[in-house]
Amino acid sequence: MTSSGRSFGFSRPGPIFRRLSYVIGAVVVAAGVAMLPAAVTSLIYREQEVAGWITLSALLTILAGLFGWRVMGRPGTLTTKVGFASVGLAWFAMACFGVLPYLLTGAIDNLTNAFFETASGFTTTGASVVPDPAALPRGILMWRSTTQWLGGMGVIVLSLAILPLLGTGGVQLARAESPGPEPDRLTPRFRETAKRLWYVYALLTLAEVLALWAGDMTLFQAINHAFTTMATGGFSTEATSIDGFSPYAQWMVIVFMFIAGTSFALHFRALRDPGRYLKNTEFRLFAGIVAVATLVMALSLWGQEPASDVIRDSVFTALALVTGTGYATADFGAWIPALQLFVVGLMFVGGMAGSTAGGIKIYRIGVLVKAAAADLRRLIHPRGIFLIRFGSKRVNEPVVESVQSFFLFFMFLFMTGTFLLGFLGAVFGPELGLVEAASATASALANIGPALGEMGPTGNYSALTWPGKWLLSLLMIAGRLELFPVLLLFTRSLWRR
């Protein structure tokens, strides 16, 4: 008789599962530690009971993470396959444990809504089921904002303490979670690159806190809105989003939305040479798209309100949609139908690669346009050789194919999600129109937040059917992780030895 686990009908976890447990457990520990500032916030505002429940949530999360990290997990170099799987599963794990503060405090009373709010936070989407955020305890508001701030730069960049334990596997995780087509290294070692990006992110967040605090926001409001602006998230402490604050505060948010939609690696390089901004092709394209979107909105709204309000609302809405921040100073759901379609189109764009913005990204759009133009020229000159360049750099064929595959999967998920959301509404109620279903799907997949109709800037997602909320939660996570880490989880080849 043997004492091996196999004789009792089970076997010890294989190497791939132990490495996954090691990485995911470490990330869950980091998420648990991140709950503690929310508990401290509750203590400051004398919410002792809320502070106790959040602390318990943190302890449960940390213990579960330690079990996976230190007990079940095993360190080792990560392959590309395991790196992608780690990222996809880590975000689901964070969302699962992130519901605890909402559920234990009673701020959100059911699992579906709590998971939706948490997934929306970690993916920086900003879609909410909370009708009036101001009615929530201060500690819960801080946790909502913290989830977006954590998700902004990504767990891999944020959790620097984990990277040294992963060896060269850290590069595979970065490639899987990178907001752009490829992780942009500032130094030969990814750990040093992560540190520099983190410094830029933290310093810009602090700068926005001070800028907003200098206006009509309290320190608490300034911290929360700085967290969610730099993450291009959009969670606000108020039911009216940014609309209830002064024009000064709105202009400050505009400035930092533009900064957050720009590559953080470019920000770092521009510290020594500010001219790098104008030399960067992607930055010029990003600024141009925002300018054109602003002009279209301003011309459409001209004469309906004072000129200063039209200009501010147009710039604000254009940036909020392109970067996926999700704040609102105007109800674009009440605009004319043609302008509403324009709004939905902007949801797909996204900011620069290497920013915290969602969407397809400016780089990919540029490459798609260049590749399409090259294909047209190839029809006229079949024997010609056409090189695709983005700015002064040549784009290799594998990168072009990757961008085209991403766009194909993105549009496939958009169409499938729109159909399923409409179908679920018809079965479970309330029934959604095509525009509402399409805008909600685009908003979730591109990590925008508000959609059209009842889910617009003045509404929320609370009335959406429960299967619809789970569907949109999955789309949020897929969109934030650039699709592939989530899609690969459902392939058989990923789990083969």
Give Rg in angstroms. Answer: 22 Å
The pLDDT mean sits at 86
Helix content: 55-70%
Strand content: under 5%
Secondary-structure-derived class: mainly alpha
Please identify the oligomeric state.
single chain
Shape: globular
Q: What is the H-and-E element order?
A: HHHHHHHHHHHHHHHHHHHEEHHHH
Low-pLDDT stretches: 1-11, 158-177
Number of strands: 2
Largest sheet geometry: 2 strands, antiparallel
State the end-to-end distance.
29 Å
Counted by DSSP, the helix tally is 23
Question: Could you give the order of strands across the largest sheet?
Answer: 1-2
Brief sketch in words of this structure:
Helices cover 64% and strands 1% of the residues.
Describe the structure.
There is one protein chain. This protein is mainly alpha-helical and 497 residues long. Helices cover 64% and strands 1% of the residues. It is built from 23 helices and 2 strands. The chain has a two-stranded antiparallel ribbon. Strand 1 and strand 2 (393-394) form a beta hairpin. The longest helix is centred in the C-terminal third of the chain and has 32 residues, at 397-428. The chain is globular and about 70 Å long. It starts with 14 loop residues before the first helix and ends in a 9-residue tail after the last helix. The relative contact order is 0.11.
